[in-house]
Amino acid sequence: MRSFDCLYFRKGDFANALVSSGISPLEIRSVEVYTSDLSEDEALECVHDIAQYVPDAPITGMSCDGFFYNCEPFTKGTLIHVIASKSCTALSSVFENISGRQIHALATDLAANGFGQGSSYVCCMTAGFTRNCELVEELNEHCPDITIFGGVALRHGRQGDAYFSESFVFDRSGAYHDAIILTAFCGEKLQAQTACAVGFDLIGETYTITKSEGTVIAEVNGTESRQWFARMMEIDSEGMSGARRARVMSRFPAVIQDVCGGQSLGLPITLGPDGRPCVPGVMLKDNLKFRVGFFSPERSEQDLCGLADALEVQPAESLFAMCCVWRRDVFSDDNDSHKTALLGFRSNHLSGPYVGGEFSHI
Questions:
Q1: Is the pLDDT of residue 308 over 70?
Q2: Which residues pair with 60 in a beta bridge?
Q3: Integer distance in angstroms from the first to the last C-alpha of the chain?
Q4: Over the stretch 181-206, which tens digit does the pLDDT of each residue have?
Q5: Helices (H), the chain
Q6: Distances (CA, A) of 52 to 17, 170, 319
Q7: pLDDT category, 32, cuts 50, 70, 90?
Q8: What are phi and psi of 291, to 5 degrees?
Q9: pTM
Q10: Which of 19, 101, 116, 250 has its CA 20 to 30 A from that of 270?
């Protein structure tokens, strides 16, 4: 597999990038579009523009809150990620208002069609989707060898619930507010690897959600959640300055980890209209155990550099990453710390979107 990334600001940009890449349109297996400033209609116009040069491959996309291109951060614009191969095939499907039963059927259908047998890779894009944990669990159970990689759409410039409720994903057929788009790759020579860096310092004990209401945490360890949250915020976080702690708490007060049976998911805890803590985008279950932590630029830089060593990235290789927007927001305003961490990969080309959360089979 080969890939290339390009920036899209106006019609024709993709054609120029395609020519510069030296890749034949017939080799392209998938095109992914990540945009922070296009409306739904404009995003579909972008898809139409790309489709003129890539008539058959899946074209999918999602709204995001900016991206980095060659390690440089961009608040506005559109990033296009292209995957090309002469030996693998790619299929894309969209599922709206998906239920737990549909997730189970989806996973078993992928397994029945040969995916997840050591040579498969699935990219997931979700919007308004509260069952990401169930999706990962089902894919792990029925397709244990599949490589899963995905992110949650955001709407740039929005705050709180609007980040998620106004987000969207899209493909050749249209835009969707409550859906998941899966692009599955399969081939004998297909090789894909993923890695994850969480980058925050855990504080306090292991907690249990003893009562939940959808995405809302109603009770923790038998204590009403607002009382628990107030006490948890008083715990000192080692190494966190008062100013940075205040900034983190003002927007994204905490991160919940291991909410999905050890899946190592980093998810934000926010406060709902009634003051109760909730986890946007996740349908919670009673008796889930979790830890709480705060993002740490120093820990994040260490974790990213550790991933660079684990993946054995070469300078000539390009990398694509989904990065949680909260990781960016707790770095310095000019993103110097984040850029330093990204450069730790030693790759000459590292790009990816800032999303509302990322998930993997890891």
A1: no
A2: 32
A3: 21
A4: 888 887 656 666 666 666 666 667 78
A5: 13-21, 40-51, 100-112, 132-142, 162-165, 225-232, 242-251, 297-311, 325-329, 336-343
A6: 14, 17, 26
A7: very high
A8: -120, 160
A9: 0.76
A10: 101
